[in-house]
Design brief:
Blueprint: H1 2-16, H2 26-43, H3 53-76, H4 95-119, H5 128-139, H6 149-167, H7 173-190, H8 193-209, H9 215-256, H10 259-269
Helix pairs in contact: 1-2, 1-3, 4-6, 4-7, 6-7, 6-8
């Protein structure tokens, strides 16, 4: 069944990449992301937990419906390409729909926060202890947000659309800032690296495909961030090692010295 998903998403990607559909159209981005996800899982499935056949059937049904919409759109789309956009997608984003969806996403944040505090045992999720408990509830207790999880994906998609509208000069900086802030809050509550990766892919891949961000710049930036993160982790590890050695040396010193003489020396210094 996983092979069927790979074939279906690749077929959708090939059809969505036709010239008359335009560059970086929503179908192309959608099938590209899901093809990469399924292909990565197919290659590395030995390192992940097994996925039930019911879940694969559900994903296959969803992708088949999306492919059907793509076929219909492909047949009714004219072959005219806008020369001013260099073949880019001519899909127009409706600002009032984006605004309505953004209001819904922000309105759901208090309920998501309340759910997160509940699974954190009543502790503040913005504290270290609360965040650890929240993370443990997701990974060990297999808890979840239920229907509120749909707002996580919606917030990320809205940020991607807001960012493209900003580059197209159809949306302002305020709307983009609000959307990014809401997405970051949802990413924080999720405590999952998967959502962070999904955020990076959905937000930046369309910009790369439209030529607004160069692939070389993205790769260089990712390499620099990885190097800085590695150096920071090494520094933290070295700092903790130095503190541990210092405490261990001081403990051995206290055990071996004469405490009476040490107390007299301390009083003389005082």
């Amino acid at each position: 069944m996983l092979e069927c998903l790979l074939l279906l998403t690749f077929s959708g990607l090939a059809l969505a990449s036709q010239r008359k559909m335009g560059l970086a159209n929503p179908f192309q981005i959608y099938f590209l992301i899901w093809f990469l996800v399924f292909f990565g899982y197919y290659v590395l499935r030995g390192d992940f937990i097994s996925v039930s056949s019911e879940f694969l059937m559900l994903m296959l049904t969803a992708k088949a419906i999306a492919f059907l919409f793509l076929v219909v759109t492909y047949r009714v789309t004219s072959g005219h390409i806008n020369s001013e956009t260099g073949g880019a997608s001519a899909f127009q984003l409706r600002s009032h729909l984006l605004l309505a969806a953004q209001v819904v996403v922000i309105a759901a944040l208090p309920f998501v926060y309340e759910k997160a505090v509940y699974w954190a045992g009543g502790d503040d999720v913005f504290s270290v202890l609360g965040y650890i408990k929240l993370r443990a509830a997701w990974t060990e207790g297999e808890q979840g947000f239920g229907y509120l999880a749909y707002f996580f994906i919606l917030a990320i998609v809205l940020t991607s659309l807001r960012l493209q509208s900003y580059f197209d000069k159809t949306s302002g900086l305020l709307g983009l800032s609000v959307s990014v802030a809401a997405s970051l809050l949802y990413l924080y509550f999720s405590t999952a690296r998967t959502f962070v990766l999904l955020f990076a892919v959905i937000v930046f891949v369309p910009l790369v495909m439209r030529g607004l961000i160069k692939v070389r710049g993205v790769l260089v930036s990712a390499l620099l961030v990885a190097c800085l993160l590695y150096l920071w982790l090494r520094w933290v590890q070295g700092a903790f090692h130095w503190v541990w050695v210092s405490l261990k040396t001081w403990s051995l010193f206290l055990k071996t010295c004469d405490r009476t003489q040490l107390h007299r020396c301390w009083r003389s210094l005082a």
